[in-house]
Amino acid sequence: MAKAPAGRLSAPQNPSPSPRLNVARHLSGTRIAHIFTLFALLAWWAYSQIIPAYQMPGPGAVFARMLDFVTTPFLLSQLWVSIYHISVAIGVAFLVGSALAFTARFVPVTRMLIDTVLTPFLNAFAGIGWLFLALLWFGLNHTTVIFAVTMILIPLTAINVRAGLQELDEDMMEMGLSFTRSGWRRFGWIVVPLLVPYFFAALRISFGVSWKVVLTAELFGGNAGLGYLLNVARQEFDTETIFAIIAFILVFVVICEQLLFRPVQRRLDRRFARA
Fold first, then answer.
1. Residue 176 has what pLDDT?
2. Closest by alpha carbon to 198, among 88, 85, 97, 92?
3. Which residues have C-beta within 8 Å of that of residue 199, sequence separation ≥ 6?
4. 199 or 176: which leads in pLDDT
């Protein structure tokens, strides 16, 4: 009995979308996003025409104020102060959070303490509480802001890195024993590369959260930075500056997301998808 052609026996496969279709969908989504942004700006402008400027300044006035932040040395220095606070806080939180996750993984006697007591405690403790404690301990200075932001970011890093450690490929870890008995070499050659996506996720989340937290920390406990300027503008009813600071942070975070985090995320997705 003659065999049926192989092509008739194989299950039909769904054809992959054509590149033109993907491009069309991308352009359609981009167009919708731009239309929404334009509509929001028009609604903002229309609303600013019917109420006093000290309550809702128009987009033009806010944009002009935003330009001052990159052209006026004093305002630019305050922006750099906030970036400094965030950079130091993210760096310290990343080191401490990673150390907690690694300790819980490789020192089993500490696992219950870190996973069930310390990390939940840090995650549940209110950010404003850390800020008030820092004010009592350090006063109005950079240390207060950095401490408050760091304590909020530590559990985010610890949870992400801990999740990565739980997902480690045990077969690959066992294979590493065939090449070296050195725990430090296996850690550097196997564990760290496998945790790169989780490290990046922790940094990406920390970057977004830190901008939300640093304004509050600088508002109540700082003597410089965008949050400090926000407090001064609030006292002087300088609504344009308040809106400009908020809009500037939004634009800055979106630019970093588009130009830095998303390209790196795509590379990591391609790299570890093949793995």
1. 66
2. 97
3. 94, 98, 160, 161, 164
4. 199
